[in-house]
Specification:
single chain; alpha+beta; three-stranded antiparallel sheet; elongated; transmembrane helix
């Protein structure tokens, strides 16, 4: 099963036909061709940064002592874009005013679209209202972040 994020444009309601569905997973194309993948998805700044880091890694790879470090920098760039590329696309859309409307687990994109567009707004509201809150939300006592992680209410 894969996870799909459904984003709606600014001012749109749930179930809008202009919604974008982004699959949140590792991308082999982004791993093999990270800069081209970012340019294809119109992430211009990320593509320029990835190109600069890869150029730096290639320049370092030519050095006889630091050659492996340069290859490591290039590999890290490829992995970062392949793992976080879809998240970068979602973050870019959110900066432009798009909102995440739903998170759907499905086998493929067609199934995710079917689930999203056949769900009635009344059923969605009923499901979202019946979600139980975590224990930390219902307790009057404030809890510190666990394992060094930032808590949700404290911000970043």
């Amino acid at each position: 099963m894969a996870t799909f994020l459904v984003l709606i444009p600014p001012g749109a309601t749930s179930g809008d036909e202009n919604a974008r569905i982004v699959r949140d997973r590792f991308s082999w194309v982004a791993f093999v061709l990270p800069v081209i993948w970012l340019l294809w998805h119109r992430a211009w700044l990320a593509a320029a940064l990835a190109f600069a880091v890869q150029a730096l890694g290639a320049a370092i790879a030519d050095h006889p002592v630091f050659g492996l470090a340069g290859l490591g920098i290039c590999l890290a760039t490829h992995l970062l874009v392949a793992l976080e590329g879809p998240s970068m696309l979602v973050a870019g859309l959110e900066r432009r005013g798009w909102a995440v409307d739903a998170v759907i687990s499905a086998d493929d994109r067609a199934t995710a679209e079917e689930i999203y567009y056949t769900e009635t707004p009344a059923a969605a509201a009923e499901t979202r209202d019946s979600v139980s809150l975590p224990a930390a939300e219902t307790s009057a006592r404030r809890h510190a972040p666990m394992l060094g992680l930032v808590g949700f209410k404290e911000g970043r």
